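thoughts on these tokens:
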Amino acid sequence: MARRKYVVGNWKMNGLTASLDEAKAIFAAAAEHPAVDVALCPPFTLIGAMAAAAQGAAVGGQDCHSAASGAFTGSVAASMLVDAGAGLVIVGHSERRDGFGETDADVKAKAEAALAAGLSVILCVGEPHAVRESGAAIDHVLAQVRESLPDDFDRSRLAIAYEPIWAIGTGLVPTVEDVAAMHGSIRAALSERIGAGAAELRILYGGSVTGDNAAQLLDAGDVDGALVGGASLTAAKFVPIVAAAAALAG
């Protein structure tokens, strides 16, 4: 079945109020490519203002807590993201798993909390370089998929993002064949879990995606879009990725 291309920018811990001009430029350009779903995930402080300027595009959070409320200083609940204007959230990003010690169980709980609050979810999985070099990358990633996936979910509100950790921000990119093999394996694992409905889920690739390599990566088997880091901070770098996705969408 045909799945709409989905290009998501993760601004990470970047962006102040002045950065909204870049977001507005991105949204204006994205509106010229209606066949592609586009979203930006800025720091929490910018969600409200960015959502107001989104021109129909989606704005999301970069993380949420698994609890609905409580004594969790510095954390953000899924309902708070919704209240701020977000429509989606990223969970399980490698920088959360590695830097903050989040487990598959943590990621699953966050995904379930986000879905319960009405958000769509981008659930990230990926392997470090040592695992890739050992030949166990696919097994490692599929274990994350199986253990992080919510028990029950609306297939229209969940996407998987495969991000080889060693390629994030390094300029290193797996071969197109490696990306296609991983995405195909993820699709097969999803099929085992939820049956034919797995064909509806979008699987994004994240790892040093640029305007130069986007067309080739997005045309690989079972690659339905991109989760973009540094290149999403400016319209000049992000819009060519959206345009590449639009060209493939026909």
The CA atoms of residues 112 and 150 lie 6 Å apart. The mean pLDDT is 96. The chain has one domain: 5-236. The radius of gyration is 17 Å.
